[in-house]
Amino acid sequence: MATIGCGVFNLIAPRSGAVPGCLAALIAGLAATLPVAVLFERHVDRLAVRLSRRSPPFLAPVPGELSS
User: Fold this and answer.
1) pLDDT digits (tens, 9 = 90+) for 11-61
2) For 60, what's the count of Cα atoms within 13 Å in the CB-facing half-sphere?
3) Is the pTM here over 0.70, yes or no?
């Protein structure tokens, strides 16, 4: 995703200057990041949450409830 932003900057900055290059890189980086984040949340994060809810409570003790 960073490669996309850097590539866009390298294409735009020599022709239009650093500020338009930065703005174009920012827009391109966001356009690449947001769909990837949505896909990650749907396919990885949700599965991880479901699996963590199935784990026995002794694997993840609640702070303050540990016996001394």
Assistant:
1) 999 999 999 999 999 999 999 999 999 999 999 999 988 888 887 766 666
2) 6
3) no
Cβ pair 6, 21 in contact under 8 A:
no
Q: What are phi and psi of 59, to 5 degrees?
A: -75, -25
Nearest-angstrom CA–CA distance, 37 and 29: 12
Rg of the Cα atoms in the chain:
21
Other C-beta atoms closer than 10 Å to the C-beta of 27 total 12
DSSP string, 15-56: HH-HHHHHHHHHHHHHHHHHHHHHHHIIIIIHHHHHHHHHS-
User: pLDDT at residue 65 above 80?
Assistant: no
